[in-house]
What we know:
Strand content: 15-25%
Distance between the termini: 53 Å
Largest sheet: 8 strands, parallel
Strand order of the largest sheet: 5-4-3-10-9-8-7-6
Amino acid sequence: METIEVGKRKIGNGCPVYMIAEMSANHAGSLERAKEIVWKAKECGADCIKIQTYTPDTLTIDCHNSYFEIENGTWKGENLYSLYGKAYTPWEWQGTIKEEADRAGIDFLSTPFDKTAVDFLENLGVGFYKIASFELVDLPLISYAASKGKPIILSTGMAAAEEIREAVDTILRTGNKQIVLLKCSSAYPADPADMHLRTIADMKERFGFPVGLSDHSMGSLSAVTAVALGASVIEKHFCLSREIENPDASFSMTPAEFKAMVEAVRNAEQALGGVFYGVSRQEESSVVFRRSLFAVKDIAPGEKLTEENIRIIRPGYGLAPREYEHVLGKVCESGLKRGTPLDPYAIRDYLTLVPAKKEHCELVFTWANDPETRAQSFSGEPIAWEDHCIWYESSLVSKTRSIYICYHGNTPVGVFRTDLVSDTGAEISYQIAPGYRHRGYSAPMIWLGQKHTLKKTPSVTTFYANIKNGNTASQKTVEKLGYRRTGQEEEYMVFSKTM
């Protein structure tokens, strides 16, 4: 789903919710009040002020038989022609209102209700159009507005999915793909129980365009809920006071209410954030209150770890509880005092390194092509099997390269590699197998790999690690082992450690 650019902003996933203040009839016949509404809407956090461009004669005819009388709802007893006469915004005001919006730094939008309104708004230089729910079935109007090549915000109150598709296809046939759909309940005011806001997610998936909410309910609840469900636009009727009598006042928001809604929406956006797993910034100080493995008795060097001398307790400074069964029966290399956290360096054969063999070729290939591994590699492109085989076979016989498979018990969990870059220097690299990341295996694997390298090549005094820019996890891992940043290339940072 692409973002749509309207006015000074973009609408769509990843963009702040676009807030529209609908003036409608709330000017109550006063141009000065209309201008005041523009500035007040801006002050309350609106991104856009919206009006409507029609006259009673462009919407209906002056007729008073039963067909033209409103029988129910907010405007019960009104005649259509006389109601629209009370509510419309005189066309001679609209250029002035747009100029006022420009001065206030707020987008100006209008809803045209016939072709003459589109022509009029074109002459005003509007940047995009809104089609009202009741006009969704007016395909000739939609086609004409869309033919101007500007974004179309389309309200969908009362519309069946097939009717929305028909309106969308009408826009697309003009070559215009700039569409925003608004879920809407065309009742004034709308009952929250009849709004069916979960439709927003379905509309996004079904039509593939940004979706928002044209909200006629009272209060902010529906708007904030819609944002949580993926709405990219919120439109609300806006008035200076519901005490100013006009056809739309009863279901419009006052400035204080609109401002509170905008603040609630912005807070909801922050709370929604993005998809995230792991420890958040605020949770970092709480990690220590997790459980982990601790020595609960003094453990002598060479003594085995047992149910009597280690336990899973708070705090969280030791190995993760998942390691309990793995370390039971293993030998404690260095000895531990009661109340000391278990770490992998104190346990014999916590991890083991085995020189890579031909039979490991496919395993290393699979790990190397894992999407997360490729993302942290200097070349993000997938590796071809034939190329891997050539590289792997030559690596096994190389005099300067060593590859080890890291095991946790009988399970392969990573690969460690060294390349001799001089008589005294070796470059390290490593991968953790998918499914075994974030278990703390990286640092002990590197530590063990360094020991193997020093045993095999005693002349090595310095280890190097080239880490791609932005790979903070690997950066923290090597720093934990005493590496320091000693260089910066265009794509990667250089870390080194002198033994």
